[in-house]
Amino acid sequence: MILACGVGVAAASAHTPSSPQRIPPELEAIAVPGTDRIGANSPDPESGPPWAVRSYTGVSSRSCLAAARLQDEQFGPLINGRVHPLPVDESGSCADLSIDRVQFIVSRFAKTADTADRTVIFGRAEPDINSVVVSEPGGIHVLKPQDEDGTFLIVVSGLAPAGAVRLSYRSGSGSSSSQTL
Amino acid sequence: MILCALLSAFSFGAIVKTALAVSYHTTCVGHGVDQGGSLTDGSFFSRVEAGCGSTNRICDLYVYGGFVGGAAVGGTTGTCSAWSRNYGAYTECAGSAHVEDPGVFSRHAHNVDNWCG
Question: Nearest residue of B to residue A91 by CA position?
Answer without folding.
Answer: B83
